[in-house]
């Protein structure tokens, strides 16, 4: 594309900007530049020494423009930077996210150090953010190199001062972890964390770390440590901040006692070097001034995109923010925020006078009193060709014959080339000389641009996917900062948790305990049973225990040695047989079914998929591969794709549907609501626009005549894809050749509809999508038929929803609504009591009188309800006051605040789904769960509210599902009897017993029962050696248990060595106790493979006990006697060796090596 930039650019604009560079004019005004036209012209005027800042009216426009400019510039030697606005509103009592701050600081540092050509894109909102001053950032950024003199305590102190949070392990930007002589940190300067290993007070090695595996991936010579907060917090700066706050407060009187208390508490935190939520409001007090982006770019030329929109944005910001601020100060309801006091000096257009400026208008500019050099670019918008693809070739041919030079920028280059060649025989070409004198031509480039343009005077035409297919360039994530970690374990043990021991039953986990006896130290899991009895479980017995998942309010702690546990175990084992039998029948029926086997992906498939504007997540790609593999088999697919809201399940469905349609078969998508049908219809129609695929919807949005045509098209096969509600299940729907049924949120259909779905499913491929998290093991155990794909990784750029759990406050609700509406968003207001909605409507009209409010609940007429939902979807309603009817399905990127009253009455999964209604864009979203302070919270309600507050990381859906099992049991998934069984023995043990029952009932080909495989005999190694993981080596208890678990599960010495290598990488050189533990595990692994049941040390001997079926070879016994002589005693299934002065570990190892010799 770069080679076409000079041809597509305006000479007049180039000349005018040259005059601006040379200082001949202070500002220029360009009219007629918009979309891709603007990015192409700015790319053309950039040179190796130029520095430009582009200010857009809002964040979305800025991000869209930046990504397009980045594409157009391709590999040009020009720094491209994006400076995002803070994702915390000015008057909000929260702090911006670490990802938001980190991105800002990374960009600011690049501005400081890059002397060459730079284009920085930002929004007006970002100009008002208070940020770290340039001199402070320059001084505090730290380059760390191998060989540097630096101690662990000094680096730790530096990390804390820069805003890093000390964690057990580093997973996201802003995390740091300390383990002896190793420090990990995740700096905004890198896509991966760094691991610094010290040799006393010298940097020995610097490695980059994979945050998923926590293993080093690359050694580097140096790294850059950047702040992750705009506040550098050391003793001197904190004291200066407190003094300035005190001085400022002398001029402001705060009447509100609660605010005075808050201020006092904040000052104490600052004085004690403790960071707190909302601390960023005090930034000017730390540095004595308010620093903003304009202070960093004083030598930049600034392009103001759409100044009239920028002016409107400023006025709205000033009105909605400053007025509320001033009134709040007067009433004593808001703390003084010094950074807002001088906001007037940033009034637009006053700020355009600071730097050489370009005022960029897409249309004709309004008259201005300022004397600007005016450049008018007379470009027009090409006519859209959506739905007229058959005319593209003749249109292009006619334009080329008329002398036009045409560039087509598309993400479907193969498809466009095919369209044109098939219809007219035209072949894309590129002349040797590219300027206005060159011969007419047309060419196709693989690029996504916002919008095309036509220059009739110069006979130049740029076409994009927008004109051809109706696509607008989508915003993908520009830079990814990890907002959460993938789920590693949903059953981490914490002191106080209930656990289940296979032999002893349900007890309370009390933590790890180090025990020393006869000079030997080991670590044990301490479990408390009824009457305070304690059980100490060695780590090698970890396979026998599981965290208890079930309702803790109904559980009984067992008595050590009592009869109730064995009886419960036997009762549950009997109860699993019926469900096991049904599962086996279902599985057999599925194995006998025959379906259609689809071919491998076509070129069309590859091109359609390449147009996806985002980078697929790992889980998403895995789900896509699994679905395609199912489609290519002869057995009918029945797969569930389960993933958090907004995690890309629809893209999986799009690719599956396309594969089926290209093979000549039809696809139906069944959805529970008309709104969801409309959303899917728009998505699929847009993605399939370049291809001859007819997509239709069938719902009440279609009139009777239109519905009749759609039904006819389904019957005769002219409609390849239909999206509909339960209307698709009616008797008049007859598919010509249905190949794939996609069901979205199946659990929301009624019983009668589900029966019809079952009939529709027979012998066709079925793909089910759900945002309701289902644990894989439970789903497989309960159905035994359906495969499951889980998408747990978050999409690019997605931020976790900021979640508040608190007693109801009208002031808090009012502030939350005003802040959301001030930034042009929408609000869900949820109360699950229909009778109370009227009084809440009255209250809302009182506190936000200008807001457009509508009520929605399940007892309304379905047509009326969907009309209201559609109005909200279109942005015609500001606040949707509703019940939990909005729990799933709606995807509205502009709705980014949800307020839930009486949250104590809702289930955990319900609250999770409600929170998932917001945060569907890159904007920061907020969820407020208010509980009624006048009612005493039950223990279950408290646990649910704590869980929704704590599980805020992206991808927490599975954790939520498991915690829901923990809180209320599995009554919602199973019948009462099976639910009781889970309550009795816990979730994990129930599944184990169910699996045993299935194996016992399976039949072999000759009709004889298959006996379940006996579990391999565990080898018990009991040597008088201190082998454990000390707390000083792995400080985090959960991580220590994980290390023990993995060592116990190792089946080969290579696996043990791999764990050994990983722990040394993560925690440094192991102490002697850990070295001994590794040796003990290796002995256990080797001994077990040889049939040794136990190795036990007593005062004089080492005793090796063999299994009953092990036959000892004579050559082994000869070698043994040759080595140990009379120290050896051989008995049936046991060999005893006197220790003398040998180390027991060395002796056991030598014994096993002798046994392993050929």
Question: Can you describe what's shown?
Answer:
With 1158 residues, this protein is an alpha/beta fold. The chain contains 37 helices and 42 strands. Helix 14 (392-401) crosses helix 15, helix 17 packs across helix 31 (976-985) and helix 35 runs parallel beside helix 37. The two termini are 68 Å apart.
List keywords for this structure.
globular, 7-stranded parallel beta sheet, 38% helix, Rossmann fold, alpha/beta, Penicillin-binding protein 1b fold, 1158 residues, single chain
Name the beta content range.
15-25%
Please state the structural category: alpha/beta
Q: What is the correct CATH architecture of the largest domain?
A: 3-Layer(aba) Sandwich
The shape, in one word, is globular
- Fraction of residues in helix: 25-40%
Oligomer: single chain
Number of E-state strands: 42
Q: What is the CA-atom radius of gyration, in angstroms?
A: 34 Å
What is the domain total for the residues?
7
Task: For the largest sheet, list the strands in their spatial order.
Answer: 3-4-2-13-14-1-15
**What ranges have pLDDT less than 50 throughout 5 or more consecutive residues?**
479-490, 970-975, 1009-1015
The CATH topology of the largest domain turns out to be Rossmann fold
Summarize the biggest pleated sheet.
Answer: 7 strands, parallel
Mean pLDDT score, rounded?
A: 83
Number of helices: 37
Question: Cα distance, first to last residue?
Answer: 68 Å
CATH class assignment of the largest domain: Alpha Beta
């Amino acid at each position: 594309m770069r080679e076409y930039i000079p041809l597509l650019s305006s000479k007049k604009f180039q000349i005018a900007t040259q005059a601006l560079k040379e200082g001949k004019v202070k500002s220029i005004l360009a009219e007629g530049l918009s979309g891709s036209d603007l990015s192409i012209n700015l790319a053309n005027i950039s040179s190796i020494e130029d520095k430009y800042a582009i200010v857009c009216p809002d964040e979305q426009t800025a991000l869209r423009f930046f990504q397009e400019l980045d594409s157009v510039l391709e590999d040009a030697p020009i720094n491209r930077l994006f400076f995002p606005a803070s994702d915390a509103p000015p008057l909000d009592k929260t702090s911006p996210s670490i990802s938001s701050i980190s991105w800002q600081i990374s960009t600011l540092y690049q501005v400081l150090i890059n002397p060459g050509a730079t284009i920085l894109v930002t929004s007006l909102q970002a100009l008002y953010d208070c940020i770290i001053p340039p001199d402070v950032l320059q001084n505090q950024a730290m380059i760390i190199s191998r060989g540097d003199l630096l101690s662990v305590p000094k680096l730790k102190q530096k990390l804390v001062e820069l805003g890093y949070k000390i964690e057990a392990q580093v997973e996201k930007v802003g995390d740091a972890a300390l383990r002896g002589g190793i420090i990990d940190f995740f700096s905004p300067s890198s896509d991966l964390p760094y691991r610094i290993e010290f040799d006393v007070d010298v940097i020995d090695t610097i490695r980059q770390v994979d945050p998923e595996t926590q293993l080093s991936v690359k050694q580097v010579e140096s790294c850059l440590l950047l702040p992750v907060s705009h506040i550098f917090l050391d003793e001197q700066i904190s004291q200066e901040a407190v003094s300035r706050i005190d001085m400022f407060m002398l001029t402001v009187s705060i009447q509100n006692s609660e605010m005075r208390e808050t201020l006092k508490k904040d000052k104490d935190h600052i004085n004690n070097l403790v960071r707190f939520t909302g601390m960023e409001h005090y930034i000017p007090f730390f540095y004595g001034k308010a620093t903003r982006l304009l202070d960093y770019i004083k030598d930049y030329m600034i392009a103001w995109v759409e100044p009239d929109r920028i002016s409107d944005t400023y006025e709205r910001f000033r009105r909605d923010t400053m007025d509320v601020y001033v009134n709040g100060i007067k009433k004593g309801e808001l703390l003084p925020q010094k950074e807002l006091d001088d906001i007037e000096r940033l009034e637009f257009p006053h700020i355009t006078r600071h730097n050489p400026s370009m005022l960029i208008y897409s249309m004709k500019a309004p008259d201005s009193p300022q004397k600007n050099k005016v450049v008018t670019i007379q470009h027009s918008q090409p006519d859209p060709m959506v739905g007229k693809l058959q005319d593209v070739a003749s249109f292009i041919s006619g334009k080329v014959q008329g002398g036009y030079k045409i560039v087509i920028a598309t993400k479907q280059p193969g498809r466009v080339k095919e369209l044109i060649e098939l219809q007219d025989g035209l072949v894309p070409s590129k002349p040797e000389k590219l300027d206005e004198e060159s011969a007419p031509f047309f060419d196709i480039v693989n690029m996504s641009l916002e919008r095309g343009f036509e220059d009739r005077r110069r006979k130049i035409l740029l076409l994009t996917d927008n004109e051809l297919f109706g696509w607008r360039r989508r915003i993908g994530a520009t830079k990814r900062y990890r907002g959460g970690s993938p789920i590693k374990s949903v059953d981490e043990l914490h002191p106080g948790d209930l656990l289940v021991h296979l032999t002893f039953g349900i007890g309370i986990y009390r933590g790890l305990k180090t025990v020393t006896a006869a000079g030997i130290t080991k670590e044990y899991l301490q479990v408390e049973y009824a009457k305070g009895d304690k059980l100490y479980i060695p780590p090698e017995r970890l396979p026998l225990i599981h965290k208890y998942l079930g309702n803790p309010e109904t559980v009984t702690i067992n008595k050590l040695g009592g009869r109730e546990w064995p009886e419960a175990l036997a009762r549950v084992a009997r109860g699993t047989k019926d469900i096991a039998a049904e599962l086996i029948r279902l599985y057999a029926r599925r194995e006998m079914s025959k379906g259609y086997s689809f071919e491998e992906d076509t070129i069309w498939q590859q091109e359609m998929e390449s147009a996806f504007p985002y980078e697929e997540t790992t889980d998403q790609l895995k789900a896509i591969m699994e679905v395609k593999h199912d489609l290519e088999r002869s057995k009918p697919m029945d797969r569930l794709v389960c993933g958090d809201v907004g995690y890309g399940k629809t893209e999986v469905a799009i690719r599956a549907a396309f594969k089926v349609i290209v093979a000549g078969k039809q696809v139906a998508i069944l959805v529970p609501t008309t709104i969801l049908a409309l959303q899917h219809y728009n998505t699929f129609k847009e993605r399939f626009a370049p291809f001859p695929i007819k997509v239709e919807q069938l719902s009440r949005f279609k009139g009777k005549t239109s519905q009749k045509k759609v039904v006819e098209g389904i019957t005769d096969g002219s409609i390849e894809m239909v999206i509909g509600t339960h209307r698709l299940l009616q008797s008049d729907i007859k598919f010509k050749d249905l190949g794939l049924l996609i069901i979205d949120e199946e659990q929301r259909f009624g019983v009668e509809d589900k029966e019809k779905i079952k009939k529709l499913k027979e012998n066709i491929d079925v793909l089910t999508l759900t945002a309701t998290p289902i644990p894989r093991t439970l789903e497989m155990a309960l159905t035994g038929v359906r495969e499951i794909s889980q998408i747990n990784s978050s999409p690019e750029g997605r931020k976790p929803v900021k979640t508040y759990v608190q007693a109801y406050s009208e002031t808090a609700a009012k502030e939350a609504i005003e802040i959301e509406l001030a930034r042009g968003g929408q609000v869900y207001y949820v109360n699950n009591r229909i009778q109370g909605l009227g009084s809440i409507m009255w209250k809302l009209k009182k506190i936000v009188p200008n807001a457009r409010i509508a009520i929605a609940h399940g007892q309304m007429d379905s047509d009326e309800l969907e009309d209201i939902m559609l109005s909200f979807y279109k942005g015609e309603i500001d606040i949707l006051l509703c019940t939990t009817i909005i729990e799933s399905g709606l995807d509205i990127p502009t709705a980014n605040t949800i307020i839930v009253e009486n949250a104590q009455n809702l289930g955990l999964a319900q609250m999770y789904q409600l929170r998932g209604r917001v945060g569907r864009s890159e904007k920061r979203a907020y969820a407020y769960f208010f509980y009624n302070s006048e009612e005493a919270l039950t223990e279950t309600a408290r646990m649910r509210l704590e869980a929704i507050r704590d599980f805020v990381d992206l991808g927490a859906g599975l954790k939520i599902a498991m915690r829901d099992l923990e809180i209320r049991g599995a009554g919602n998934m199973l019948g009462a009897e099976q639910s009781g069984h889970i309550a009795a023995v816990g979730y994990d043990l129930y599944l184990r017993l169910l699996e045993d029952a299935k194996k016992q009932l399976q039949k072999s080909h000759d009709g004889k029962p298959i006996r379940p495989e006996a579990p391999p005999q565990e080898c018990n190694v009991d040597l008088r050696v201190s082998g454990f993981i000390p707390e000083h080596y792995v400080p985090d208890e959960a991580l220590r248990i994980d290390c023990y678990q993995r060592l116990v599960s190792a089946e080969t010495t290579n696996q043990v060595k791999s764990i050994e290598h990983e722990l040394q990488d993560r925690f440094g050189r192991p102490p002697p106790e850990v070295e001994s533990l590794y040796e003990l595990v290796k002995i256990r692994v080797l001994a077990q493979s040889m049939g040794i049941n136990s190795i036990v040390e007593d005062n004089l001997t080492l005793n090796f006990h063999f299994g009953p079926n092990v036959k000892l070879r004579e050559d082994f016994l000869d070698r043994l006697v040759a080595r140990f002589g009379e120290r050896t005693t051989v008995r049936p299934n046991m060999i005893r060796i006197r220790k003398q002065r040998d180390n027991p570990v060395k002796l056991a190892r030598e014994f096993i090596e002798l046994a392993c010799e050929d």
